Amino acid sequence: MLQAAASDLGTVNPDLFVFGCTSGGSLFGMDYDRKTCADLGELAGCPSMGVVTAAAAALDRAGARRLAVITPYIDDLTNAVATALAEGGREVVAAHGMGIHVNVALADPTPDEIVQFAADKLKGKQFDTLFVSCTNFRALEAKPALEAHFGVPVLTSNSAVIDGIRRRFEEAPAQATPPGRNGDTPRRRIR
């Protein structure tokens, strides 16, 4: 189903394909995420990026060595994310999930509830970076309060992928495509 969706998305001539599932990308490790995303990008006819790979790159840029992980997930998915992010030589000192098992319910916790959960679970833990997983979780909204509470950099799935997209487009040379059949203006293309 994912391959068919990538092929269908290719019909809109995208500049970038993002596999936007942190837990799904982490299930079989970073190499699998990179390969899966490359395959999906090929089907879509454009470069690709996975959220968990973007998160690992953001953690590298932040100099994260001792990492705490918070998720809305069940334990198996929380552990998969923690294990994938540890592949970069980081030590995961704590990984806690809220135990939510219904996909649409991942967005239910409020930013205040996310901060309270993290404060309760990470009390007394020593870490230099906090990663809050899930693109459907309201962690980006909670980020400022989490940073204020813990006094360390906080990265979220969404902040990592947004930064990854921004960096890709800023660092890649602009290539204009010719106007479309309807005379629309050329777009910047990344190939």
TrEMBL record:
Signal peptide (UniProt feature, chain positions) = none
Q: Which Gene3D superfamilies match?
A: 3.40.50.12500
The family database entries (InterPro entries) matched by this protein are listed as: Iso_Racemase_Enz_sf (IPR053714), MaiA/AMDase (IPR026286)
Region described as Disordered: spans on this chain: 169-191
The name under which this protein is listed is Asp/Glu racemase
PANTHER family per the record? BLR3294 PROTEIN (PTHR40267)
